[in-house]
Amino acid sequence: MPLARPARLSIQRARRRAQGFYRLMGGRYWFPHVLLAMLLGLGGFLLLHENFGGQWRYYVHEFAQGNFNFKLALLPALLIGGGMVTMALGLLWRSRLAWVMAVLLSATAVTNTIFSPVAHGETLLAYFAFVLVALLVTWRHFDRSSVAAGTLFALTSIAMLLMYATFGSYYLGAEFKPHIADLVTALYYSMVTMSTVGYGDITPQTTEARLFAVSVILLGVAVFATSLTAVIVPVVGQSFQRIIARRGSHMKRENHFVVIGNTPLAINTWSELAKRNLPVTRVVREAIEEAKSKDVDIVVGDPSMPEVLHEAGAEHAQAVLAMLVDDSENAFVVLAVKDLAPGVKTVAAVNDAHHLSRVKLVQPDVVIAPQVLGGELTAMLLSGEQVTSDFVMQRLFQGSAGKADPATPAAK
């Protein structure tokens, strides 16, 4: 059953307040990736603390002395907790790969807490379940492919596999021929098995040892292949985007127009300017299909960053048109252009009437609000009010002070 009108209005007002608070607090720079990174890192620390507590100094001391008295049952907690702390760094880069690993580690932590009782098991179980749900809900925010995150994943995966193989072969040492009696020999056997070299000087003799060796081989091949892909794919992807973005860079970026965004308004504006043989450079966040055409000059990057605007030649442009979906981002672009090139004309698109006055605070030279105008024109036509061309131009193009733009008469 549809909500009553007062309820809908209350929801809309609450949503606008939440969006306003989000922009006021600069949410796009820290939410939700920073919070989730803190939650994941804290979860890893809690898991390590519950399993090791104050004994970690003892284990470090024993390991340094060569006396390895480590409980095999603590190995899963060490691998999961250490992996969560490490992947928390990857979440700070909004890496999709780090997000996938964080989800897997959180799910594994839930399972480990269920089957390995600890002092505060119920609290930890609820915490890890909450982290897992939070990660799944915010998956859209982790869409970046980062070389740093890929490298972090590769190093973490290899370190965790090496720990698993070394500690496992050490504990099963009596089931090998010759026996594995020290950590150095265990490390040697692990490296030889993980790399599938297989010298044959140490061989498993029991079913358990053979199955363990098979698991190390399979995990070694999978981890090395995945790690290599995680590092190479972002490098190749970024190079590919740069190549695509610069296919049209033969155009001299001077006295041109810079159209920012991939909205219908931005696409149509670019198309109309191009039809009139005017030089246009598009700025988009991600490579698009049109970039394959040699006739389109495109720059890929964050349009609010000075280096991206500089690459697009904003300081030498006739005008920079900010036509993104988010009105606050359009305002940020105007501020960035004014800081980079104070004399360049700026045009800001407004998609929501409630943001019109706020966008004007950054003082763009022209504010264009076609979507806002559409509702007003529809109401005027239905009510029989007269619509004149002067009214349309004044309402469609507004100066930052609320007056008609000086170029408006020429546009008529």
Descriptive overview:
The chain starts with a helix and ends with a helix. The C terminus is likely disordered. It is an alpha/beta fold. The protein is elongated. It has 16 helices and nine strands. 59% of the residues lie in helices and 8% in strands.
Total discrete domains: 2
CA-to-CA gap between the ends? 48 Å
Spatial strand order of the main sheet = 5-4-3-6-7-8-9
Order of helices and strands: HHHHHHHEHEHEHEEHEHEHEHHEH
Strand content: 5-15%
State the CATH architecture of the largest domain: Orthogonal Bundle
CATH classification class of the largest domain: Mainly Alpha
Q: How would you sum up the major sheet? A: 7 strands, mixed
Shape field: elongated
Which stretches of 5+ consecutive residues score pLDDT under 50?
Answer: 400-412
Examine the coordinates and then state which fold CATH places here, giving the name of the CATH topology of the largest domain: Helix Hairpins
The count of β-strands is 9
User: Radius of gyration in whole Å, from Cα?
Assistant: 29 Å
Helix content: 55-70%
Q: Give the overall average pLDDT.
A: 81
Which structural category do the helix and sheet elements fall into? alpha/beta
Summed up, the helix count is 16
Question: What does the secondary structure layout of this molecule look like, with pairings?
Answer:
Blueprint: H1 5-24, H2 33-52, H3 56-65, H4 75-92, H5 96-115, H6 121-137, H7 147-171, E1 176-177, H8 183-194, E2 203-204, H9 207-245, E3 257-260, H10 264-275, E4 280-284, E5 297-300, H11 306-311, E6 319-322, H12 327-340, E7 345-349, H13 356-360, E8 366-368, H14 370-383, H15 389-396, E9 397-398, H16 408-411
Parallel strand pairs: 3-4, 3-6, 4-5, 6-7, 7-8
Antiparallel strand pairs: 1-2, 8-9
